[in-house]
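Tutorial handout. Part one gives the primary structure; part two gives the three-dimensional structure as tokens.
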Amino acid sequence: MSATHAGFVRSTVLFMLIGTGILLGIVFATFGLVEKTSATFDYIIVERDIRRTSADLIQNLIDAETGQRGYILTQDDSFLAPYDQALSGMNSNLELLSQRVRGRPIKQEQMPELERLVQSKLSEMARTIELVKSGQRDAAIRLVQTEVGREVMDQIRAIVDEFKQKSDSNVDQGVRDQVEATTQLQWITVGGGIAILAVMGGAMVIVYQHVRELLKARREVEHLNAGLEARVSERTEDLMQANQEIQRFAYIVTHDLRAPLVNIMGFTAELDTSLKSLQAYVLADGTSVSEEMIRDARLAASEDLPEAIGFIRSSTKKMDGLINAILKISRDGRRQLKPEPVELKTMLETIAASLHHQISEGDGQVSLDVKAANLVTDRLSVEQILGNLFDNAIKYKHPERPLELAVRTVPEGRHMVRIEVQDNGRGIAEQDQERVFELFRRAGQQDKTGEGIGLAHVRSLARNLGGEITVSSRLGEGSTFVLRLPSDLSRLVRS
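Part two.
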């Protein structure tokens, strides 16, 4: 076993023991506080029962005394019913109270005196009722007037009030104990939880450090595999896209170069026909020439030959322009990129200033909103892209309103910058929005000179920089070209 692994095992076991000890401490403390809380609760319940039983005892004595005095005054037997009922309740009250004060020395010591006083009061009330029943009502009244019964009642009230007061005090103390126990339980729980979290955190750090070492090599391999898969996927997509571009390019080149060649071939045949008429006249070699031959020779020299030569020259010029455009895009693709820090705001202000005269001629204006100010890229390529987009906005502005050109730059994700060039020009029909990026393709009304290579050149430059350009547009309302570029081209070039 290596030293690192042995240290990890020791640290892990130590943290587990500490955590287990803290957990057991919390459990035992919680059980102790729960037991204490339960005992305090039972104590409070008994004190409340003592207070209620004491109150019931006084109430029964009052009810019995009321029935006694009502019977003495009226000699009506109906007053004896509450009296008898109160007597029955008092016996029950005394028995319950005697049971509930056990274990409470002060109250338990006073119980014999309370029982004696209650029996004395009951005897006094029973004596008066017996006197009334035997026809000695006046003697019963005189016995009541001696106030012996009142004094006994006062003494009973004093003891019962003391019971109630002590019970109230004990209940209050029990409630305070309950609150204190609850608070202690909360602190123990919180403190124990924090301690366990600290232990878990320490253990997790140890585990993390150990696992980090174990998985370091694996993560590197996975990272390399993931990067390889991503690069393979990117290269596959680039190859597929390049293959599609090559197919489109081959079609466009063969189609657009074939048209001038067909014109040249056709007018060469016409040139040959005209040349025969001219040869017949020029090479007559002294023989007689008919008027028709003279007329045909003059027509060929004055009209047919210049027309054929003119068409051949224009077709050749068109082919030369198409070939030069192809060479230009090819040269840009082969040019070595030079990543350098570029301040977008300064570049945009410079381009706008160079075109200020053309924009201000029609009361146009340019607004810049630069939130992504810097990137590392090929300056010349970005200047060509933005310059071409500005030129197109001016070239294809709407004839009935001043040009409003808005440029916004914002970061997009961690490694990309988004540049939006929005105009209020003619706009591009939906079916032409992808077509405008194809070589020698133009969209909309063809009232402006051009070969249809501008936006194809722009897309080629953008892709050389590792980015892409798209357009969204509404016919008659304007267009928004969105250029996405890597924020640091040097990383892409190194990879």
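Part three, for discussion. The first strand starts at residue 339 and ends at 343. Residues 148-282 form the longest helix (135 residues).
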